[in-house]
C-alpha cells in the first residue's frame, strides 16, 4: 500500500513526530486531498497542548490547508477530482441541527475544527468532509493562499458582516502581525479609511505600504485619544488582544462603534457600562468562516492584490516552523510545503 508522511503530536506539550501512514480511501461524504501547502497558525498550539474542548491526541495539526482533490467517497457530487481546494478552521458541520437547517453552518454545535478534532494538513495527504471544502481560484499560488484560510478569512469575514460600518468609515486595525497585516489590506480594499494601531513607531512604513491611511503609535499617546481626534472609530479590529490595549480601545469607538475581537489569545479585560452606553457601543467577536466564505475571501484577495507575507518551511521542518511562529519572529505567516 502506498504511504504518506505526516507530523503528529502524541502527547500534550510534546514535540512533533513523523509517521508513515497508509494513504486512506475516503469514506462516504469524504474527500482525499493531496496537500500542496499548509499554514502554521498560532492556534495550532491548541493541538500541541491538547487545550481545546474536544481535542484528543494523537493528532496531525493544520487548519490552513491547500490541496488538490485526489478521490472522493460515496455520495460526494462535489468537488470533482483534480480541483484545487482549501480546508480551513471550519472542518465540517452536521447539516441536521437547527443552525445547519437555517444555513448558519459556523454555529453548528457539532462542527469540528481541522487539526484539532480531525487530522489536519501537516501531512502529504489529508481526509476532509466535502461540507467544509473551499473552492479556490484555480491559478492561485498554494503557499500564498494557505494563510487566507484562517488569518485571511477571519479578518475578511468578520469585517464584511458588521452592521453600521461601510465604505469611507474609519476602521482601526490593532496589531500589525499575522492577522493585522492582512486586516489592514482587506480593510483598505473594502473601502474603509484605515488606521493601523501599533505599540511602537517601527511599523509605520510597512503599515502605509499595506494601505493604512493613518498610523497610530500608542507609545506617543493612547490609541483612544488619537482615534477620537479622527472622529472615533466605527470599527476596531482587535487582532493582538492584551488587557490594557483592549480597555483603551473601547474608548476609541465613535457612535455605534464596534470593538471586534478576532485575536484568540486574549487576557481578560474590564469594561465599564459607561464606556458603551452613551455611544451605543458594541464589544463583539467573530469566528473565521465556512468553506464558501473562504472561497469569497480567496477570490477577493486575488482580485484585489491582497497577499499574505509568508516564510516557507518544508514539512520535515514542522517543529522548527512551529517554534519559529510561536517565537513571534515570523514576518508574518509561516507555511509548510510537503
Ligand atoms: Zn488559525
Ligand atoms: Zn449542525
From TrEMBL:
Keywords recorded for this protein, A-Z: Metal-binding, NAD, Oxidoreductase, Zinc
- Matching Pfam families: ADH_N, ADH_zinc_N
Decide whether keyword Metal-binding is in the record: yes
Q: Which residues form the Enoyl reductase (ER) domain?
A: 13-336
Q: Does the keyword Zinc apply?
A: yes
The cofactors it requires, by name, are: Zn(2+)
Write out the GO MF terms. alcohol dehydrogenase (NAD+) activity; zinc ion binding
Cited InterPro entries: ADH-like_C, ADH-like_N, ADH_Zn_CS, ER, GroES-like_sf, NAD(P)-bd_dom_sf
Cellular component (GO) terms are:
cytoplasm
SMART domains tied to this protein: PKS_ER (SM00829)
PANTHER family under this entry?
A: ALCOHOL DEHYDROGENASE 1-RELATED (PTHR42940), ALCOHOL DEHYDROGENASE-LIKE N-TERMINAL DOMAIN-CONTAINING PROTEIN (PTHR42940:SF7)
Recorded family membership: Belongs to the zinc-containing alcohol dehydrogenase family.
This chain belongs to the protein called Probable formaldehyde dehydrogenase AdhA
Native species: Seminavis robusta
Amino acid at each position: 500500500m502506498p504511504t504518506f508522511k505526516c507530523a503528529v503530536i502524541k502527547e500534550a506539550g510534546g514535540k512533533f513526530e513523523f509517521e508513515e501512514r497508509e494513504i486512506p480511501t475516503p469514506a462516504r461524504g469524504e474527500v482525499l486531498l493531496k496537500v500542496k501547502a499548509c499554514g502554521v497558525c498560532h492556534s495550532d498550539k491548541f493541538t500541541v497542548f491538547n487545550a481545546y474542548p474536544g481535542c484528543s491526541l494523537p493528532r496531525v495539526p493544520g487548519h490552513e490547508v491547500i490541496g488538490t482533490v485526489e478521490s472522493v467517497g460515496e455520495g460526494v457530487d462535489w468537488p470533482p477530482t483534480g480541483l484545487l481546494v482549501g480546508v480551513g478552521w471550519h472542518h465540517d458541520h452536521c447539516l441536521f441541527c437547527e443552525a445547519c437547517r437555517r444555513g448558519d453552518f459556523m454555529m453548528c454545535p457539532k462542527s469540528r475544527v481541522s487539526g484539532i478534532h480531525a487530522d489536519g494538513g501537516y501531512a502529504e495527504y489529508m481526509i476532509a468532509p466535502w461540507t467544509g471544502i473551499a473552492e479556490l481560484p484555480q491559478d492561485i499560488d498554494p503557499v500564498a493562499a494557505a494563510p487566507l484560510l484562517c488569518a485571511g478569512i477571519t479578518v475578511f469575514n468578520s469585517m464584511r458582516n458588521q452592521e453600521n460600518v461601510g465604505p469611507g468609515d474609519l476602521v482601526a486595525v490593532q496589531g500589525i502581525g499575522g492577522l493585522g497585516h492582512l486586516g489592514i489590506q482587506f480593510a483598505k480594499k473594502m473601502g474603509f479609511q484605515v488606521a493601523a494601531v501599533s505599540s511602537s513607531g517601527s511599523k509605520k512604513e510597512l503599515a502605509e505600504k499595506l494601505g493604512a491611511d493613518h498610523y497610530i503609535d500608542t507609545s506617543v499617546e493612547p490609541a483612544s485619544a488619537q482615534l477620537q481626534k479622527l472622529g472615533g472609530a466605527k470599527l476596531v479590529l482587535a487582532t493582538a488582544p492584551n488587557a490594557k490595549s483592549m480597555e483603551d480601545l473601547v474608548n476609541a469607538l465613535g457612535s455605534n462603534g464596534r470593538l471586534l475581537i478576532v485575536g484568540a489569545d486574549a487576557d481578560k479585560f474590564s469594561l465599564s457600562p459607561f464606556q458603551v452606553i452613551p455611544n451605543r457601543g458594541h464589544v463583539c467577536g467573530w469566528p473565521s468562516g465556512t468553506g464558501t466564505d473562504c472561497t469569497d475571501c480567496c477570490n477577493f484577495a486575488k482580485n484585489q492584490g491582497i497577499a499574505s507575507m509568508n516564510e516557507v518551511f518544508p514539512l520535515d521542518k514542522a517543529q522548527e516552523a512551529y517554534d519559529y511562529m510561536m517565537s513571534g519572529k515570523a514576518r508574518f505567516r509561516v507555511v509548510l510545503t510537503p
